Amino acid sequence: MQAFQRAEKGCEHGDASHLLLIKKQQKKMRTDIYRVVSQGVVTYVPSTKEESGQLAKSIVRLREFGSGSKFGDEYVCTLFGNLAQCRFAEGDLVAASLRFQVHEVNGNCHQEIVANDVVPISRK
């Protein structure tokens, strides 16, 4: 946080690029309760870190629970490894820890949301 504050002070002197760089490098975590909207199929991607040489990957859509509306905020998250192989049904209530990360590729900013931990609370 101190680095972020120092960068803001630097912005007063016209150093906005430094602040933008620090914002891009920060990772935000959020743990909350969600309802599962949908989950995609498991695919396998090449990985040098896995013994088998492949890493399981799946996409899941989570909607915030307790917003009192069926139109609450939704997050499209990526699941990796053993977590990707867990199957969640539509309507399942889960506690999830999400990691938000922003990075730049070829001049375009992309936000990546990875579910680090998903624990089922109740099955529908």
Task: Explain what this protein looks like in three dimensions.
- With 124 residues, the chain is α+β, with helices and mostly antiparallel strands.
- The protein has a single domain (28-122), classed as OB fold (Dihydrolipoamide Acetyltransferase, E2P), CATH 2.40.50.140.
- The chain is 19% helix and 51% strand.
- The protein is built from three helices and six strands; from the N terminus they run H-H-E-E-E-E-H-E-E.
- The protein has helices at 2-11, 16-25, 82-85; strands at 27-39, 43-46, 54-64, 74-80, 93-105, 108-122.
- Strands 1, 2, 3, 4, 5 and 6 form a six-stranded antiparallel beta sheet that branches.
- Helix 1 (2-11) packs antiparallel against helix 2.
- The longest helix is centred in the first third of the chain and has 10 residues, at 2-11.
- The radius of gyration is 18 Å and the shape is globular.
- The chain starts with a helix and ends with a strand.
- Mean pLDDT is 77; it is low at 1-24.
Attribute tags:
124 residues, alpha+beta, OB fold (Dihydrolipoamide Acetyltransferase, E2P), 6-stranded antiparallel beta sheet, 6 strands, globular
Could you write a compact summary of the structure shown?
With 124 residues, the protein is an alpha+beta fold. The protein is built from three helices and six strands. Helix 1 packs antiparallel against helix 2 (16-25).
